[in-house]
């Protein structure tokens, strides 16, 4: 029981809750709109007012397809970021045509810095990258991540959009009265920081620096207000 | 003559009328067939021209053409020509068509599986064949040497044929991991077809000898491995001996037959065949004393120069096989290895004592070959080679089991009298198969080209089992660029294992099974059976039925003229009198299912000898009968009224016709085999004939399709949407021609997952979900919970137990409420990616995986043991599957 022994009680609580149909609710129910409001026909998103890590609306958004950019604070660099975003099921997290739930904007360098022998020789050589996303809790929780795998790639500045996610107006949204606030809560977010230590060069096999910095850092991402309209 | 058993049959026959039965094609006299045989090349050319004229109607364009793979003339006089589809000069993998030319010259397409509307992502492959090999070599790291020079065939690869992930359990650590020799990469091309390479190579084992044949489909643009298969002794199946070691003691007696009339073995000649030429090797008839088949006549050869006999049959197998030429080659005076093209061709028995293939012939001392020192050390009285004492009596074996021993003083060398026992059995097996092919199918040898077979006996590596190698080498034709497979038709019979009560594997049904396997593989050459299809199950069922036919009818119509009744058992080489497989009731082994169910491919691909159960039973019913007595071992709950079979000969003819004329893919399903067999039976015996009815009912009795005139039964099968988007693990249901069997639904550890299943044939689509173990549970190979099962609600919400190993698979079963006889058996792969150890499986964990990239395994584990979950390891392959598994678990 090397791995799970200390986790089991907590996990079981989550599982039992989910199994009995009461799990997965990360947020309170939607704020009740005025009784006379018309049915919603679109989504409206207001950017958070704080600076730093934030999900901000992209100009390509439409009333039925909200595109959010993740941006970071100025003066900081990182090697990747992942976050979990919860809603209540009244909107759908967008799944892109390639089957992923987030879109790479090109800031993070996902491939090897110095292409290996085969990447060098063969430009189309298939190389897996860590651009990953999915949903949990019956679609109510979006979990996405984009990480540089190669330590040789430099950490990147974070002010430009780092990745995109989409939120779709769906049947459940249409059932809401216009003006309803749709919960959108950042559950957890972590980054690979700039300093992750230096891999020793042969014959040096002292991994102390790498091991001391072998961790992810928690961050807070501000989320704006989402409403059905 | 029809044997109508019940009113429905009679009624059907009456309604069908004579006109329908007239569709049956009569078998032609031998003389007429011989004429048509001689015209086969020209008729195949006619078929090619016809096919070209039909290209447009087949949905093909100007870039498509066809190349003849092989042809035959069937007993109805039809030329049956099998063609590969070629697109822009490159073969399309898995795409072929069979054209028939009647004796009158009428042409028709028998079956086709062609790729239409091919659109390729590139005008030409980005990688050259040499570059593809370069990449493959890197991906086989740590480097494994190649045996024979690998061959690289350019192909067009339909991405629907993508391979999948095969898990293997490391016996040392107990952890599951992706099997690097049998798994595709977690990569899905975005187009329906890509340019690819089919690479075949022999990998060297630790002893430096080729021990694994690896077939790889590689994306010719990206170098990604799209499919990968490995066969050979290097692939360890921990249950190779399971049946024997478990001491099967089947309680049901074999089918009772009328007593056989056996000729006296002494009637066999032990002399030179009269009229044979005297200047070269002379065909002779020897006298075999075998352990399983008794005493019999066997073909041998007399060498007048050396005045001795050998187990070489120059009258069968006029074309040398590649194995003999290559493995019995020699080094010339310059130290260069040379093929032995001078060896007389014919079916041959050899042994491989001391890793040297040495024949039971006189030329072991003729100077053309020199036995290795190890062989010489084992030579005993009565054996030639270094002693110079020839096989002079032409009597082979003493009917006792051969036990390998390195101690020459014990007179147990492979050439000793008891060592000859297995050799005589092997020659008898080859002869019977050859004679049956000739008698039943008007065919010379397994390939119709009279290529010789080779038996290796008394092998000390494959103890208690028979293995086969249909092909020994591959070449790429410099003109067509197609990969040419050079048949070896070699089977190897292991010695016995006295400590386990297992006798020599040179047993007639095991030999017949190997020969049947080779017949199947040669016919469908160039194809590959996906490890998630039911292809291997169907193949093995076919081979088992052919084994019975070779042993029984081959003996009757061959040189023996001897009646040996089929036993419908396979592998009787157990000292306790048991057998490995009972075709009439496969479940007697305690594992094999008697009826089809979804998920059979799990069993069939790891252990075909178990998964084949339903096919074995269908062919037994077809040949013999199904009982209406529920206490009988031949009773089927799927056809409780029973049925009458059509006999072994007709069954073999239907199966052979189905294989050669109605099957295009080695990935065929059990249901696909049913379709092919019914079509073949219809061609042979006419629509609505008793044979067609029996064929249909036989499959129905094994729960493969409905009975004759009845609808298909209820079917339950897993919803393939459970599989990763990018691995194409399951694109078809079981009713598709080439279904891809269920593999691993991947669900996250400890989180409830709704499993899905499909059901048809009933308005009541309800199923009951349970965690009932698979029939093969407890075998130890698949953990399947190790006694701990996942929790599953009756509605199919699965919750895995929390366990401390990296990957685990658990049994799940969905049973129809409308018909509890119908169920699907699957396995769920429970995946954890909690690499950061926070108790949650989410995308954030992949940040930790990124940190670990290129950091040595033991280093990062020292600071974060959570990285042992998922697919542990730091390579690109592990990363790919960790990404793919996440997508499967959370991407739907």
CATH class of the largest domain in chain B: Alpha Beta
Estimated structural class of chain B: alpha+beta
Could you tell me which chain pair has the largest interface and how many residues each side has? A-B, 63 and 65 residues
Beta strand % of chain B = 15-25%
Strand content bin of chain A? 25-35%
On the 0 to 100 scale, the average pLDDT of chain B is 77
How many β-strands of chain B, per DSSP? 35
Largest sheet of chain B: 8 strands, mixed
What is the top-level CATH class of chain A?
Mainly Beta
Extract low-pLDDT stretches of chain A: 1-27
Unreliable runs of chain B = 1-22, 235-270, 274-279, 363-389, 406-412, 721-742, 777-783
Mean pLDDT of chain A: 84
For the record, give the distance between the C-alpha atoms at the N and C termini of chain B, rounded to a whole number.
Answer: 57 Å
- How do the SSEs of chain A run, as a string of H and E? HEEEEEEHEEEEHEEHEEE
Shape of chain A: elongated
| Helix coverage percent of chain A | 10-25%
> What is the correct CATH architecture of chain A?
Sandwich
Protein name (chain A): Lipoprotein
Keywords (chain B): Hydrolase, Metalloprotease, Protease, Signal, Zinc
Domain Peptidase M4 C-terminal (chain B): 567-704
Organism (chain B): Geothrix limicola
């Amino acid at each position: 029981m090397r791995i799970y022994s200390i986790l089991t009680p907590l996990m079981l609580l989550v599982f039992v809750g989910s199994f009995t149909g009461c799990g997965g609710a990360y947020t309170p129910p939607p704020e009740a709109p005025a009784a006379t409001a018309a049915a919603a026909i679109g989504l409206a998103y207001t950017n958070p007012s704080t600076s730093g890590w934030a999900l901000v609306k992209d100009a390509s958004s439409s009333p039925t397809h909200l595109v959010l950019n993740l941006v970071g604070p100025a003066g900081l660099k990182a090697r990747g970021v992942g976050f979990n975003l919860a809603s209540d099921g009244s909107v759908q997290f967008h799944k892109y045509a390639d089957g992923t739930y987030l879109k790479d904007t090109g800031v993070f360098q996902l491939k090897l810095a110095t292409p290996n022998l085969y990447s060098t020789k063969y430009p189309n050589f298939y190389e897996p990258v860590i651009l990953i996303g999915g949903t949990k809790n019956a679609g109510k929780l979006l979990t996405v991540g984009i990480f540089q795998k190669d330590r040789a790639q430099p950490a990147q500045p974070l002010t430009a959009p780092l990745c995109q996610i989409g939120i779709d107006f769906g049947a459940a949204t249409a059932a809401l009265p216009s003006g309803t606030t749709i919960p959108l809560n950042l559950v957890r977010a972590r980054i690979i920081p700039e300093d992750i230590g230096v891999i020793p060069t042969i014959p040096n096999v002292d991994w102390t620096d790498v091991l001391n910095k072998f961790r992810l850092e928690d961050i807070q991402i501000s989320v704006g207000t989402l409403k059905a309209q | 003559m029809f044997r109508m058993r019940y009113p429905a049959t009679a009624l059907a026959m009456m309604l069908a009328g004579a006109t329908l039965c007239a569709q049956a094609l009569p078998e032609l006299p031998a003389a007429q067939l011989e004429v048509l045989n001689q015209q086969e090349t020209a008729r195949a050319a006619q078929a090619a021209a016809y096919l070209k004229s039909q290209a447009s109607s087949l949905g093909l364009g100007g870039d498509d053409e066809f190349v003849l793979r092989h042809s035959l003339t069937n007993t109805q006089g039809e030329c049956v020509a099998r063609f590969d589809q070629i697109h822009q000069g490159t073969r399309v993998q898995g795409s072929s068509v069979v054209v028939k030319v009647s004796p009158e010259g009428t042409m028709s397409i028998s079956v086709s599986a062609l790729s239409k509307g091919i659109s390729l992502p590139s005008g030409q492959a980005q990688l050259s064949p040499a570059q593809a090999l370069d990449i493959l070599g890197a991906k086989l790291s740590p480097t494994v040497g190649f045996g024979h020079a690998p061959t690289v065939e350019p192909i067009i690869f339909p991405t629907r044929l993508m391979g999948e992930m095969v898990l293997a359990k490391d016996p040392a650590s107990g952890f599951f991991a992706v099997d690097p020799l049998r798994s595709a990469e977690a990569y899905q091309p975005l187009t329906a077809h890509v340019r690819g390479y089919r690479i075949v190579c022999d990998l060297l084992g630790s002893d430096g000898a080729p021990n694994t044949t690896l077939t790889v489909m590689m994306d010719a643009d990206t170098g990604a491995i799209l499919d990968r298969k490995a066969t050979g002794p290097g692939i360890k199946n921990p249950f190779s001996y399971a049946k024997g070691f478990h001491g099967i003691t089947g309680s049901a007696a074999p089918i009772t037959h009328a007593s056989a009339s056996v000729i006296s073995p002494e009637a066999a000649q032990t002399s030179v065949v009269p009229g044979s030429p005297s200047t070269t090797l002379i065909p002779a008839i020897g006298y075999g004393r075998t352990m399983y088949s008794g005493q019999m006549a066997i073909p041998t050869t007399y060498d007048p120069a050396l005045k001795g006999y050998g187990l070489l049959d120059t009258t069968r197998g006029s074309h040398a096989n590649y194995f003999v030429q290559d493995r019995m080659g020699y080094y010339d005076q310059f130290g260069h290895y040379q093929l032995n093209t001078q060896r007389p061709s014919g079916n041959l028995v050899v042994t491989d004592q001391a890793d040297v293939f040495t024949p039971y012939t006189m030329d072991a001392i003729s100077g053309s070959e020199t036995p290795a020192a190890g062989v010489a050390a084992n030579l005993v009285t009565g054996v030639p080679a270094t002693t110079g004492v020839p096989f002079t009596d032409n009597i082979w074996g003493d009917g006792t089991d051969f036990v390998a021993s390195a101690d020459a003083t014990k007179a147990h060398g492979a050439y000793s009298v008891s060592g000859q026992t297995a050799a005589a059995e092997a020659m008898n097996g080859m002869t019977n198969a050859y004679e049956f092919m000739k008698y039943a199918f008007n065919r010379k040898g397994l390939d119709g080209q009279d290529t010789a077979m080779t038996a290796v006996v008394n092998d000390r590596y494959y103890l208690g089992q028979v293995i086969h190698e249909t092909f020994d080498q591959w070449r790429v034709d410099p003109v067509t660029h197609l990969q040419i497979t050079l048949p070896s038709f070699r089977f190897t019979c292991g010695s016995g294992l006295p400590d386990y009560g297992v006798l020599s594997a040179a047993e007639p049904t095991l030999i017949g099974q190997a020969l049947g396997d080779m017949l199947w593989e040669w016919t469908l050459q160039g194809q590959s059976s996906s490890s998630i299809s039911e292809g291997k199950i169907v193949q093995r069922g076919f081979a088992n039925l052919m084994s019975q036919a070779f042993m029984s009818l081959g003996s009757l119509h061959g040189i023996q003229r001897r009646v040996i009744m089929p036993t419908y058992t396979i592998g009787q080489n157990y000292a306790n009198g048991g057998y490995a497989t009972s075709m009439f009731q496969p479940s007697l082994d305690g594992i094999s299912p008697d009826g089809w169910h979804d998920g059979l491919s799990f069993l069939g691909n790891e252990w075909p000898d178990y998964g084949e159960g339903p096919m074995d039973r269908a062919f037994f019913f077809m040949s013999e009968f199904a009982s209406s007595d529920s206490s009988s071992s031949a009773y089927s709950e799927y056809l409780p009224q029973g049925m009458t079979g059509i006999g072994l000969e007709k069954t073999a003819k239907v199966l052979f016709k189905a294989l050669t004329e109605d099957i295009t893919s080695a990935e065929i399903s059990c249901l696909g085999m049913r379709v092919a067999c019914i079509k073949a039976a219809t061609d042979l015996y006419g629509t609505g004939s008793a044979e067609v009815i029996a064929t249909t009912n036989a499959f129905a009795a094994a729960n493969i399709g409905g009975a004759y005139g009845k609808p298909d039964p209820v079917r339950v099968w897993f919803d393939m949407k459970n599989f990763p988007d990018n691995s194409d693990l399951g694109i078809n249901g079981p009713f598709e021609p080439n279904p891809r069997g269920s593999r691993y639904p991947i669900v996250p550890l400890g989180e409830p997952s709704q499993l899905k299943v499909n059901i048809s044939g009933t308005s009541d689509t309800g199923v009951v979900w349970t965690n009932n173990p698979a029939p093969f549970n407890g075998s130890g190979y698949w953990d399947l919970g190790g006694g701990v099962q996942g929790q599953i609600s009756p509605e199919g919400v699965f919750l895995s137990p929390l366990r401390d190993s990296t990957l685990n698979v658990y049994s799940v079963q969905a049973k129809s409420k409308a018909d509890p006889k119908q169920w699907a058996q699957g396995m769920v792969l429970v995946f954890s990616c909690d690499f950061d150890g926070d108790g949650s499986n989410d995308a954030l964990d992949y940040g930790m995986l990124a940190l670990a990239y290129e950091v040595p395994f033991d280093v990062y584990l020292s600071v974060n043991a959570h990285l042992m979950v998922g697919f542990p390891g730091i390579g690109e392959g592990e990363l790919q599957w960790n990404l793919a598994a996440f997508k499967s678990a959370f991407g739907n």
